[in-house]
Specification:
By secondary structure, the chain is an alpha/beta fold. Helix content is 32%, strand content 26%.
């Protein structure tokens, strides 16, 4: 699957950071992780720092799939409102999902400080009503978050204009959010994994998984075989090819970065993620270099060639939307790209085994707008499963979750 097109900023900025070898011989392993993007890297880091020996396999160069196209807005705010999650799965589960995403941002901050040089920065998050009709829903969401201790405030139109320089009928301002360079972080994580004695291979494609009572044989396209106890499939939106039927809808999203803008021009946009209530939604955030990274214009296109042909048109549309909100900003799309992502019906990820492949093969499907924060949670969840422990989100993030879980409402 061609997961991206155009010129994703992270790969242009960073280049190929570390060469990893290709695997072309048989190997024994404890746990094999299929996928060397930010999700696979976070899982490999979590396992290896707790004594597990892992082997990471990436069929491209590390980080060259969806991670290179990620816009890396780190939010605890799930694409599905907490109010709506509570209606589906019960209040306790909805709050737990949101709190876990908030804790994941703090965990990512600690990890980024340990790694260094991954462009991590704390931000605020401004979630604005695209139209007056959306205000009541956002206020209901605000009330629920406040009731459970989230640090949020309501901004009226006048405050939005004064503080952020554009007009909207209202907005939720959250104090906890962040930004990061996901491509660089994936590399630094995997470098540490190797230093701990585990192994990372790129340009190595898995052809087949054969499970038995004692383990899994991972057969590579080049004929080599890995024998292991557990497999984690963390190959992003390509993971669904291992399932008998899709569990999420693949879609395309589009993004670009501007030329660097002076700090006085950026103002509070320099430390605030901005997104809207419309679906699909416009979103933007600044980069470490003072550029604006702008994304959105999502569509149902799942054919790479058609997505690729739309990149420049989508960039122009996004630029026009931003200039409508901020007429004084001159938006010049410098690097533009499109990428594949997947959406689940409820906005939640899937972590753990699927009946199609048995209990030794786990999936890490950090789908939706919270991919990196979900991956941080999933790394801990999957380690718990491999170690035979329960995790509080094990049921909610499993393939077996059902709306009947709403019986946990309290």
């Amino acid at each position: 699957m061609d997961l991206k097109s155009g010129y994703p900023f992270w790969t242009v900025k960073n280049g190929l950071l570390t060469p990893f070898p290709q695997l072309n011989q048989d190997l024994q392993a404890e746990t094999v992780i299929i996928g060397g993007g930010i999700t696979g890297a976070l899982i490999a880091d979590e396992l290896s720092r707790h004594g597990h020996r892992v082997v990471v396999l990436e069929r491209r160069d590390v980080g060259w799939g969806s991670s290179a196209a990620s816009t890396a807005l780190l939010q605890y705010e799930i694409d599905t409102h907490m109010v709506h999650l509570a209606e589906q799965y019960g209040e306790a589960n909805a709050v737990m999902a949101y709190r876990s995403c908030a804790e994941a941002i703090v965990s990512l901050e600690r990890l980024a400080a340990e790694l260094g040089n991954v462009a991590f920065s704390r931000q605020k998050s401004l979630y604005f009503a695209s139209q007056e009709a959306d205000v009541d829903a956002l206020k209901a969401e605000l009330a629920m978050r406040k009731r459970f201790g989230f640090d949020v405030a309501w901004l009226e139109q006048r405050a939005i204009e004064a503080d952020y320089g554009f007009s909207a009928p209202g907005a939720i301002l959250s104090s906890l959010a962040a930004r990061i360079d996901p491509y660089r972080m994936a590399y630094h994580l995997l470098e540490n994994v190797v230093r701990r004695g585990s192994q990372v291979f790129d340009r190595t494609q898995v052809e087949q998984l054969i499970t038995d009572d004692d383990g899994v044989n991972v057969r590579l396209r080049n004929g080599a075989t890995l024998r292991c106890q557990q497999v984690i499939i963390a190959s992003g939106y390509e993971s669904q090819t291992w399932l008998p039927a899709p569990v999420a809808a693949n879609r395309s999203s589009y993004a670009f970065v501007t030329d660097p803008l002076p700090s006085e021009v950026l103002g509070k946009l320099g430390h605030t993620l901005v997104w809207e209530s419309a679906r699909p939604y416009l979103y933007l955030r600044s980069t470490q270099e003072g550029r604006l990274l702008i994304g959105g214009e999502d569509d149902d296109e799942d054919i790479a060639e058609r997505r690729d042909a739309r990149v420049m048109e989508k960039a122009r549309t996004l630029a026009a939307k931003v200039e409508t909100l901020w007429p004084d900003l001159e938006i010049n799309p410098t690097f533009c790209w499109g990428g594949t992502f997947a959406e689940t019906d409820d906005g939640l990820p899937y972590f753990g085994p699927h009946e199609a492949l048995g209990p030794r093969v786990h999936f890490a499907m950090a789908y939706g707008g919270n991919g990196i924060t979900y991956s941080m949670i999933g790394a801990q969840l999957l380690r718990a499963l491999i170690e035979g422990r329960e995790h509080p989100l094990g049921a909610l993030f499993s393939f077996q979750r059902e709306p009947s879980m709403a019986s946990t409402r309290r």
